[in-house]
Design brief:
Blueprint: H1 18-42, E1 70-71, E2 74-78, E3 88-97, E4 114-120, E5 127-129, E6 132-133, E7 138-144, E8 149-157, E9 166-174, E10 189-192, E11 195-201, E12 207-217, E13 220-221, E14 234-239, E15 248-250, E16 260-266, E17 270-280, E18 283-293
Antiparallel strand pairs: 1-2, 2-3, 3-7, 4-5, 4-8, 6-7, 8-9, 10-11, 11-12, 12-13, 12-16, 14-17, 15-16, 17-18
Length: 294
């Protein structure tokens, strides 16, 4: 927090002639009009590509994603946002470009063009889904919000004209009574189905931090993970509170054979929930950790 100080205003010591004051105001007003016209005159209109693709802003993501339904020239518009807890219903949505046209050109990553992550606001009920797109650009995926509560859905995709993925978020609601569960503090290991998963490294606020995640079985490292979306595994990190969606990129090139490496853009100090997905012998599993960024 920036300390708040008292703003002291020095009194005007010498009187100013009225005519001089008016003349100054007129001059200043005229300068403002000319300056505004010159700025507006130099402002180029936004450009758009064909097939509903925006151009320009999509290659310059700033900060974490998923905090809004629109970002980088793209807008997420869901058909419905209200669900009945415990019942499957098709979740349909469309991605629009800044020119108001549906986006239909997406880069395929692995065997998918769109991924959808859904989690309740208390970080429970994590789901990773793969919608299917119709010809008109409408994405559809069966969705079951098992428990009542407020959820956040994150659509992550790579438009045909972009260099980095775009993540948009929208709130979903399953009415009913619920008690938010507690979020565990700082965990570095998790067990699931005979596997032990450990993450090492440090999340440092304001930097790109390196994270190593090791999958062990029978006290031996698992080095033959099945590929997911073209990589060895997937890592989703959400900030506690606003559920900001961090950019976690698999590290390309040489790496440790016994670990899957990620570079993570950490915006602020605080607690983060990490969801690590790995697939081995055709079976997909997800483990969860809590990390403290310092």
């Amino acid at each position: 927090m920036v300390p708040t100080g008292k703003l002291q205003v020095e009194r005007l010591r010498a009187p100013i002639p009225v005519l001089a004051l008016l003349a100054g105001l007129v001059t200043l007003f005229g300068f403002g009009i000319n300056f505004g016209e010159s700025v507006v005159g130099r402002t180029a209109p936004a450009r758009h590509g064909h097939d509903g693709r925006g151009i320009g802003e999509e290659n310059h993501a700033e900060g974490p994603g998923g905090l809004a339904v629109s970002s980088q020239g793209y807008v997420l518009r869901p058909r419905i946002t209200r669900f009945i807890a415990g019942e499957y219903e098709n979740f349909r949505f469309t991605i629009f470009s800044s020119n108001g046209r549906p986006v239909t050109d997406f880069v395929r990553r692995g065997d998918r063009q769109m991924t959808l992550v859904v989690v309740r606001r208390d970080m429970s009920g994590y789901q990773h889904l793969y919608p299917v797109m119709d010809r008109d650009g409408t994405w559809t995926v069966p969705l079951d919000l098992e428990e009542p509560g407020s959820y956040r859905a994150f659509a992550e995709f790579l438009p045909g004209t972009a260099k980095i993925p775009v993540t948009l978020g929208v709130d979903l609601d399953a009415p009913g009574f619920f008690e938010p569960g507690p979020i565990s503090k700082e965990s570095t290991a998790a067990d699931i189905d005979g596997y032990t998963v450990i993450w090492t490294g440090n999340l440092i606020a304001g930097t790109v931090s390196r994270v190593w995640i090791h999958v062990m079985r029978d006290n031996l490292p698992v080095t033959d993970l099945d590929p997911i979306l073209g990589g060895g595994a997937r890592l989703v990190i959400l900030r506690e509170g606003d559920l900001a969606y961090l950019n976690a990129r698999p590290v390309e090139g040489p790496r440790q054979d016994t670990a899957t490496d990620f570079d993570v853009e950490v915006p602020t100090v605080g607690y983060y929930r990490m969801f690590f997905e790995f697939q081995h012998h055709g079976q997909l599993r997800t483990v969860e950790f809590t990390a403290l960024a310092r």
